[in-house]
Each structure stands twice: as structure tokens, then as C-alpha cells.
Amino acid sequence: MTQSCMRNGGSCVGKPFTSNCKAGTLDKNGCKSKHCGCCIPDCSTRGGCDVNAKCILPNGATTHICKCNVGSAGNGKLCGSDQDLDGYPDMELKCKDVHCRKDNCPTKPNSGQEDQDDNGVGDACDNTAPVVT
Questions:
Q1: What whole-number distance in Å separates Cα of residue 18 and Cα of residue 117?
Q2: In 14-124, which ranges are E strands?
Q3: Chain segment 36-48, per-residue pLDDT in tens
Q4: Is the dihedral of CA 47, 32, 57, 54 positive or negative?
Q5: Which of 23, 43, 76, 100 is most buried, by CB atoms within 10 Å?
Q6: Which SS3 state, helix, strand or coil, does residue 79 take?
């Protein structure tokens, strides 16, 4: 069953039909209601994203993504300061994603987190790192 369901101030207009929408979701047309069907997460309530992240609903997607803002890093649901902008937070975050691990050289960009001598200090900051010739 297809019905007209247009976005109008975040609520459905037209003739809605019953669906299994949960509170805090939108349908595929951006309608915020327990009617209209084909629900997707609602970014208007941040979608579970960190305050330092954007909730993004890609065109045609059925789920949203959370992306940390510039100057922050993490998995989007948790973001921490990233002063060198290399995609790793300055402090360890409580999540399992690789981008939640503490930056091993928070003052210099090192997106690969290289650490040749495995001492926990990134090569970009480590004066004892072996010289590669």
C-alpha cells in the first residue's frame, strides 16, 4: 500500500497508514510519525550521535551514520578531541572501534599510528624510533 506522505514540519500529512514505526524514527520520505511506513532513524534527535558529531542520513539509506566533527575523532557515537586532526582522539574512548584508541602522538598527525619500536609512542613523536634508510 502506498500513500502520500510528505514532510511537513516533521509530521506526516496526507492519508497515513499504520506501520511499525517506533518513536524517534522517520519514514523513507522524512515523515516523523508512527504512520507512513518504511521507518529510518530520526536525526532530529541526534540519532544517538555524540554532541561533537553529525547525524547523517545518506540519500536513499535506511539507516543513519554518526560522523565526528572536524577537531574530534571516534566512532561517531563517542567523539573526543583530536588536536592533530589525524582521526584518532587525544584520549582513549570507551568503544571498540579502531578510531576510539588513544592517539599515540597527539600533537603531530600520524594517521597510521606507526610505532616501529612498539613503545606506545608514535614514530612521529618518538626520538628513540629506529631510523629507516
A1: 61
A2: 25-27, 39-41, 53-56, 65-68, 72-74, 79-81
A3: 444 445 566 666 8
A4: negative
A5: 76
A6: strand
Give dist(CA 45, CA 12) in Å, integer.
17
Q: Please tell me which residue, 30 or 68, carries the higher pLDDT value.
A: 68
Q: Specify the higher pLDDT residue, 112 or 48.
A: 112
pLDDT of residue 57: 74
125-to-93, 107, 115, 118, 132 alpha-carbon distances in Å: 21, 8, 9, 13, 15
Q: Does the structure show a pLDDT above 80 at 6?
A: no
Quote the pLDDT of residue 60: 61
pLDDT > 70 fraction of the chain, expressed in percent and rounded? 57
Which stretches of the chain are assigned E, i.e. beta strand?
A: 6-8, 11-13, 25-27, 39-41, 53-56, 65-68, 72-74, 79-81
Residue-range domain boundaries for the chain? 6-41, 46-100
Measured at the CA of 51, the angle between CA 49 and CA 56, to 5 degrees, comes to: 40
Cβ atoms of 108 and 124 closer than 8 Å: yes
